[in-house]
Amino acid sequence: MLKHYLNSKIETISYDKDIDEIELNLCNEDRVVQYYMVSTDYNGGKKAIKNKLLPIIQQNKTSFGLKNGNISIRFVVNCNGEIGLFRAKSINENLEPTEFDQSNINYLISLVGELDNWYVETKKEKKYDSYYFINFKIENGHITDIF
């Protein structure tokens, strides 16, 4: 079962043997950039991610009780298009930190971890490691959007 770390702010993500199942090989662990700086994306963009994950989640009938809010899963895409170092942050509809069921968050992280069609653009003849995130919108206990 994947573990996650609930974090209240955006910060660097480093390998932590207590949180991460495997160590992600980075090209330059001293400089992991934001995805928009180097055009890292999933092939087909967030729409392709939504089209792939939402039907699986709905078929599995994943439920978060009657809660509303968002779960953001942040991770690193290395220069080879491999992903890892997953972290999760949860907020309610008032944008306040909240907690959702740990097993559901682990399930979402495992689904994100299966995404394997990442595009890493070359900038100045070099590929970079970068951060990326996926948000899951929860309404009345069900995921209604992925962005």
What is the structure about, briefly put?
With 147 residues, this protein is an alpha+beta fold. It has three helices and nine strands.
Walk me through the structure:
The chain is an alpha+beta fold. The protein has one domain. Helices cover 22% and strands 30% of the residues. It contains 3 helices and 9 strands; from the N terminus they run E-H-E-H-E-E-H-E-E-E-E-E. It has helices at residues 35-38, 45-60, 102-113; strands at residues 33-34, 41-42, 69-77, 83-92, 118-119, 122-123, 126-127, 130-139, 142-146. Strands 1, 3, 4, 8 and 9 form a 5-stranded mixed sheet that branches. A two-stranded antiparallel sheet has the order 2-5. The model is unreliable at 1-10 (pLDDT under 50).
The count of DSSP E runs of length 2 or more, i.e. the number of strands, is 9
Q: What's the helix-strand series?
A: EHEHEEHEEEEE
Distance between the termini: 24 Å
Integer tally of domains: 1
